[in-house]
Amino acid sequence: MESTFPQGMVHDAGDDLQAAIRSDQKLFSLWSGLTPLGRNEFICWVEDARQPATRERRIRRTCEELLEGKKRPCCWAGCIHRTDKAPGPWQRAVLVDQKRKTRA
Fold first, then answer.
1. Within its chain, how far is the Cα of 79 from the centroid?
2. Distance (Å, whole) CA 89 – CA 2
C-alpha cells in the first residue's frame, strides 16, 4: 500500500483516521480519489469532535460514507478554517459565532 497519505487542503488526518482508512485497500483507494477539498471536509469534521467517543464515531462514519460513495461528510456545514474563501453566513452563525460563545 502507498506510504504517503493524501491529506486535505488545510487539515492533515490524525493517526487514528489514517489507520482506519489504511485498514482497507478499497477505502484507501476511495480516499485517494477524493479531491483535497473533499478529504479536508472529512478531516475537519473528525477533528471538530470534542470527545473521543464522538471522534471514533465520526471516523467510523467517514469509512461508511466513503464506501457508500459520498464525497463529503453528511450533515457537515463545511470547514471554517479555509483561507481561500470566507465562511458563508450560515457557517458564521452556526459554527464560528457558536464556538466563540462556548469558549467565552
1. 8
2. 39
